[in-house]
Design brief:
By secondary structure, the protein is α+β, with helices and mostly antiparallel strands. Helices cover 62% and strands 14% of the residues. β1, α7 and β2 form a beta-alpha-beta unit.
Length: 185
């Protein structure tokens, strides 16, 4: 196991890779990706579902019934329904959000897309975000999509993380560096 990843992340990545490869073999990659996006949306917007999935004291029979009902209502393929059942039976359903996130990342990578985190001190327009994405995409050779947030505590500038590369031009960061230098002297 990699020293940089937690057990839960490593486990979620393995399950995500498994469903990714199965979906690819069965030519269901697009439908599984869409289903996972829909499921993630429901999961993130429904605290009751999140608590139910993450609660280890729930019997696996109840969790299995719930996952089967969700799969039926959301019209998931047999492959995805079976996969969710395996997660419940193996008592790994509480990794669901991490598995979905990892799966979506694998799907984006397959399409040649890269997701980066961008935090700016002011709200950027969609055109400004597109311009930044286009310029970076030219440099790295992949299409870049942003997880974008505004953090006014940065005072000015931005923070961007693409993979392990971190670019921090924020005034807050510069002030912290000067503060550290002054404290050391």
């Amino acid at each position: 196991m990699s020293s940089n990843k937690s057990f839960s992340t490593e486990t979620a990545d393995r399950y995500a890779r498994a469903i990714f490869e199965l979906a690819q073999e069965n030519s269901e990659l697009d439908s599984v990706e869409k289903n996972f996006k829909d499921l993630l949306l429901v999961y993130n917007s429904n605290k009751e579902l999140e608590n139910f999935v993450r609660n280890p004291t729930k019997s696996f029979e109840n969790q299995l019934k719930a996952m089967n009902k969700i799969a039926e209502l959301m019209k998931f393929s047999k492959l995805l329904k079976d996969f969710l059942s395996v997660l419940v039976i193996k008592r790994r359903i509480f990794f669901l959000k991490k598995i979905i996130t990892s799966f979506l990342k694998l799907s984006a990578e397959k399409r040649g897309e890269l997701t980066a985190q961008l935090v700016s001190s002011k709200n950027l327009t969609s055109q400004e975000l597109k311009n930044v994405s286009d310029e970076l995409s030219k440099i790295v050779g992949f299409e870049i999509n942003f997880d974008y947030k505004v953090d006014q505590d940065l005072i000015g500038g931005f923070k961007m993380q693409v993979g392990s590369l971190m670019i921090d031009t924020s005034i807050k960061s510069k002030l912290n560096k000067y503060k550290q230098i002054m404290l050391e002297n």
